[in-house]
Amino acid sequence: MSKAVTDALTRKLSATTNLDSEDIAAIEALPIDVRSLPARQLIVRDGESPNACCLLIEGFAFRSKMTIAGKRQILSIHVPGDIPDLQSLYLGKMDHDFSTLNEATVGFIGHVPLRQLIRRRIRIAEALWRETLIDAAIFREWIVNVGQRPGRVRLAHLLLEMKQRLAVVGGLNGNALELPMNQQELADALGITAVHVSRIMKELRERGLVEFQRHLVIIRDEKRLRDFGEFDPIYLHEDSGT
Amino acid sequence: MSKAVTDALTRKLSATTNLDSEDIAAIEALPIDVRSLPARQLIVRDGESPNACCLLIEGFAFRSKMTIAGKRQILSIHVPGDIPDLQSLYLGKMDHDFSTLNEATVGFIGHVPLRQLIRRRIRIAEALWRETLIDAAIFREWIVNVGQRPGRVRLAHLLLEMKQRLAVVGGLNGNALELPMNQQELADALGITAVHVSRIMKELRERGLVEFQRHLVIIRDEKRLRDFGEFDPIYLHEDSGT
DNA sequence: CGGTGGTTTGATCAAAATCAAGTGAGGTGG
DNA sequence: CCACCTCACTTGATTTTGATCAAACCACCG
Q: How many C-beta atoms lie closer than 10 Å to residue A170's C-beta?
């Protein structure tokens, strides 16, 4: 596969693990089936048993789960370089849905070549394992967010997490970040209603913390927003070398 | 180390991965520092960089996180056979606390011998990786629980998860399970207040679903409780072979 | 130019939080 | 053995947060 396809991935892995040139070459040599997908396109469905993992190359994606009562909870938002369903390598069945948020380019990597790579190159295995552990660390923070913080703080926290994560893969424009989610989607990520999201956005705007434009979020006062959102990025483990 | 120490662990790993006798022997040969700890004893603190992982041998433990606003969220409950801080192998710093719930026996396994084991025996590596992935799957379900379900449903769901997980390691007594948590701890796990937990427990009791006795939970009508708690155990991936 | 999907705003309602005052079981020391 | 203390739990009254319901409003688009 071409370098451009795996670029965001290798960049992210290199940030925490010392990959040598052979490791990088092995990743670039993976057979990857690249596809363009429309916005809001389901990629893998809850209950399925996929035989490939999906590398997000361009665009945004999200994972979500429906309750029996018919409510949707968004579990995570994904940016280029993420492999959101890496867990399908070792967990037979999906326990949630995985979909694009906006128009996206994704690359499917078969389980078989991926397992071979992991068995041959232990350093890549450890780097990928670490990625799934960071994934879990983010879930933990989301439990805290949804369980213990009032709505407006939840939103502030989410925006700062996205800013921090986009910075790593070069998705920032000064203090502005793309976030192609409507209010219903934000609501499902935060465990509140869309109406309430609207009111909360208004409040953050009026406090001079954030500006919202279509699918663009502009952080007006990051320091105050961090205090307001109780945001401390250690849970993202951006420095987590061995 | 003696077989008894690693028994619950090897039993759990064997349930999903075909470990051969050499794998089992390698696990039993790990140097494990076994200790008895009192109830409510902090084992690893948020922000620390431990150099060992903690295998829970006997008793219950939990992971939790304090918000800047001073609220506590319990992130997971652990039973014998779990290695709740396995992530510390690849994530330098703890992003949460880890403590015992009742009197417990734990075994500390140094990161160095554990990494060696992982590098030598790929099948064990994959089994442990899978354990961390199941951990993450449980976090996902907790996000849904706290984000989308009313309090009484959350409690029912939690009780059923504990029953299901205890069954695997042989911690059940018919339809009764030990759960050494007080109402404040349940509240912090469910994202509600202790007062509300009290009222909810009353409701479940009055509906004939569950009986509570000290630290004992008796499931009176599992089928109805599963419906009530919207519980579907697929997220625990008990069958997740490759 | 009329849809349509997304957002805003207001009015009302419900779930859970908070505040406050008991109750009750176990454990300790006189 | 009893008095008392403490901690956990229960219950009631009130308040708060966010949900629900409903009606505009608005921008973009065919």
A: 12
Residue B90 pLDDT exceeds 70: yes
Residue contact A139–B141, C-beta within 8 A: no
- The pLDDT value given to residue B239: 82
Query: Going by C-beta distance under 8 Å and a sequence separation of 6 or more, which residues neighbour residue B46?
Result: B65, B66, B94, B95, B96, B97
Nearest nucleotide relative to A40: CA against C1': C5
**Phi and psi (nearest 5°) for B167?**
-60, -40
Beta bridge partners, B104, equal B37
pLDDT band with cut points at 50, 70 and 90 for residue A168: confident
Q: Strand C: which positions are within 7 A of a protein CB?
A: 6-11, 15-20
Query: Do B106 and B35 touch, CB atoms closer than 8 A?
Result: yes
Rounded distance between C-alpha atoms, residue B128 and residue B144, angstroms: 25
Global pTM reads 0.96
Counting one residue from A and one from B, how many pairs have CB atoms under 8 Å apart? 148
pLDDT digits (tens, 9 = 90+) for B209-228: 999 998 999 999 999 999 99
**Nearest-neighbour CA in chain B from A220: distance (Å):** 22
The stretches of chain B forming alpha helices (DSSP H) are: 3-16, 21-28, 111-120, 122-148, 151-168, 183-190, 194-206, 222-228
End-to-end CA distance of chain B: give it in Å, rounded.
29
Q: How far is the CA of A183 from the C1' of C7 (A)?
A: 8
Question: Do residue A95 and residue B137 have CB atoms under 8 angstroms apart?
Answer: yes
Count of Cβ atoms closer than 10 Å to residue A124 Cβ: 21
pLDDT of residue A2: 67
B197 interaction partners in chain A (CB closer than 8 Å): none
What's the CA gap between B57 and B5, in Å, rounded? 6
- Pick out residues 146-185 of chain B having their CB under 7 A from any atom of nucleic acid strand D: 182-184
Q: Answer whether residue B242 shows pLDDT above 60.
A: no
Name the amino acid, one letter, at B159.
Answer: L
pLDDT of B176 over the 80 cut: yes
DSSP structural state of residue B93: S
Q: Give B6 or A241, the one with higher predicted confidence.
A: B6
Question: What pLDDT does B1 receive?
Answer: 57
